Amino acid sequence: MHSIHLKEEKRFAKDFRPAVLFGGIVPHAGYVFSGHEAIHFFELVKNHPKQFDTIVILHPNHNGIGPEIASDENNAWQTPIGIAEIDTEFRDQMEFEASALAHKFEHSAEVMVPFLQYKLPYKFRILPVSMSRQTPQHALKVAEELIRVQKILNRRLLLIASSDFSHYVSPEYGKKMDQMVIDQIEKGDIEGIYNTVKKNNISVCGFGPIMALLAYAKKLNEWPEVRILRRGHSGEIIPSQEVVDYVTMAVYSDIEQE
Predict the structure, then answer these.
(1) For residues 218 and 191, is the Cβ–Cβ distance under 8 A?
(2) What is the mean pLDDT of residues 4-20?
(3) How confident is the model at residue 6 (pLDDT cuts 50, 70, 90)?
(4) Rounded distance, CA 183 to CA 6, Å?
(5) Alpha-carbon distance 238 to 241, whole Å?
(6) Does pLDDT of 5 surpass 80?
(7) Residue whose C-alpha is closest to residue 22's, from 230, 229, 228, 225
(8) Residue 186 backbone phi and psi in degrees, to 5
(9) Domain ranges across the chain
(10) Whole-angstrom Cα distance, residue 46 to residue 40?
């Protein structure tokens, strides 16, 4: 198994132009809290030299309503900025069930869309995919299915793994727990992420999407890398000793492979 190299960037990296951008891990709390972290990924996407046809938003299903893995049966989502079309052709090629119910009461995908609409100067489509059962097996299934359909339709995909990190803990404890998960992300160890979260009861809510993103990158490129773009917590906005942690990362490679 090849390791994933970890780098950290605390500001907008104007000179950070990876050859391949597979996607990112992006927080999904209210904009006033996690927007300070999330915006760094969308800035990176805006400045990337390549444009993407379809942006897959992998996200947890906090309510557990609907299928274990589900796309959305609607044709578009509407935000105050405008209409975001769903890539229905890609969706209909996938083997996952399309369920509006799985997304109806879920916020972790929809908060990404206005960022994309505001930052990207070109036309794109979205593809929300929810995961209520977050296991390594389901993550691999998602990655393999995305790659299978991508080859059929020749889409340029970007994946967003929507996830907050530790919830309602002290800043010190949360940072310690988060680092354990980040260490496994650095190794590219899908099973390690799962086992670390479960064994230590770490409240990273989107570890399934994170595993799926890493599985996707590792299947397409021998040497994917991870860069932390921004790390923070809700206590930086409203002081508290019970905070939610946010970590934004880019998953990329400086080497293009056939």
Answers:
(1) no
(2) 63
(3) very low
(4) 9
(5) 10
(6) no
(7) 225
(8) -60, -40
(9) 5-253
(10) 10
Q: How far apart are CA 221 and CA 239, in angstroms?
A: 42
Fold of 5-253: Protocatechuate 4,5-dioxygenase; Chain B (3.40.830)
Burial of 5 (0-12, 13-18, 19+ CB in 10 A): middle
| Rg value, the chain, Cα | 17
**Residue 214 near residue 190 (C-beta atoms within 8 A):** yes
d(CA 222, CA 141): 19
How does strand 157-162 pair with strand 54-60?
parallel
**How many CB atoms neighbour CB 19 within 10 A?**
14
Question: If pLDDT is split at 50, 70 and 90, which confidence band does 254 have?
Answer: confident
* DSSP letter (8 states) at residue 28: -
Q: Which tokens belong to 246?
A: 């946010």
Give the pair of three-digit tokens for residue 134: 């977050």
Token look-up 């996690």 returns 34
* Of 90, 185, 84, 167, the residue nearest 129 (C-alpha): 90
How far, CA to CA in Å, does 32 sit from each of 118, 127, 236?
16, 25, 11
Cβ-contact 251, 45 below 8 angstroms:
no
Q: What is the DSSP letter of 160?
A: E
Contact 19, 7 (CB under 8 A): no
Cα separation of 189 and 94, whole Å? 26
User: How do beta strands 20-26 and 245-253 pair?
Assistant: antiparallel
Q: Are 247 and 202 in contact, with CB atoms under 8 Å apart?
A: no
- Please state the three-class secondary structure of 113-141 as a single string: HHHHHHHCCCCCEEEEEEECCCCHHHHHH
Backbone angles phi, psi at 151, to 5 degrees: -70, -35
Q: Write out the two tokens for 204.
A: 């990273």
- Residue that is written with structure tokens 């000793």 in the block: 241
Would you say residue 23 has pLDDT above 70? yes
